[in-house]
Structures are given as structure tokens and as C-alpha cells.
Amino acid sequence: MVKSLTQEASIGISQASVVDSDEKLKERVAFIHESIGTAAIVEQYIEGRELYVGILGNQTLQALPVWELFFTNMPEGAKRIATDRVKWSVKYPEEIRHRQRAGRGPARDARPRDSAPVQARATARSS
């Protein structure tokens, strides 16, 4: 998975961000450099749930409930990633944006005992 080192909110992320060859890797890194104007980072793509934890505070941190992105109505073969185009493009046909948009809400089956470790990790401070 190739993305900007410094941008967030899916800026520059598309289905092409998930690469499977050295050639595609080089192409995507060049795209990030040229189009986004930042350094690129490469991370392993791991299929699975997309969980988010909001944090409040400065000295004392408080984790908000765990939320999840739900990927529904994605085209066959598409990676379950929240792309820049689906999230932000006003040129992308509205019908397609809403049909492919990731829904969001409290994490499925998010019992307090399951959410607590995720929230603890989110609020842990590195030394």
C-alpha cells in the first residue's frame, strides 16, 4: 500500500495504491511525489476491519468509543479501502459515491471488553 508520508484523510489513496509488483510500486511512488508533492510510505496491505478511535485531551487522554467503517456495495475485486475519490471528489458521480461509500458507526460487536484494549493502545504514550 503506497501513500503519502504526511497527508491524511485518504489524500492520494486509490485502488491503485495497493500494488503487487515492483513496476507498480515505482509508478505509485512517482505518482505520490508528482501529484501530492510529498514523500511516499509503503505499508503492508492487510485485509480486515477498519477501526477508528477518537482521542480527547492533552495531558490526560480520553478515548471515545470505537467506530468502524463498513464497506458495502464495493465493485467485485475492489480492495476494501476508503479512497480519496470516494470520500472527497465532487466530480465523481454522486450516485456512485453514495453506492460505494463506506458507512460508519459503532464497531460491530464492540463489547467493552473488546474495545478496551483498542482504546488503551490509542491513548498509550510512547517514551
Mind explaining what this structure looks like?
The protein is 31% helix and 20% strand. With 127 residues, the protein is of the alpha+beta class. The protein has 2 domains: 2-42, no CATH class; 50-123, no CATH class. The chain starts with a strand and ends with a helix.
**Beta-strand proportion:** 15-25%
Discrete helix count: 4
Helix fraction bin: 25-40%
Distance between the termini: 28 Å
Q: Name the helix and strand elements from N-terminus to C-terminus, one letter apiece.
A: EHEEEHHEH
> How does the overall form come out from the CA principal axes?
globular
Rg calculated over all Cα atoms? 17 Å
Q: In total, how many domains does the architecture comprise?
A: 2
Mean pLDDT: 82
Biggest sheet details: 3 strands, antiparallel
DSSP summary, beta strand count: 5
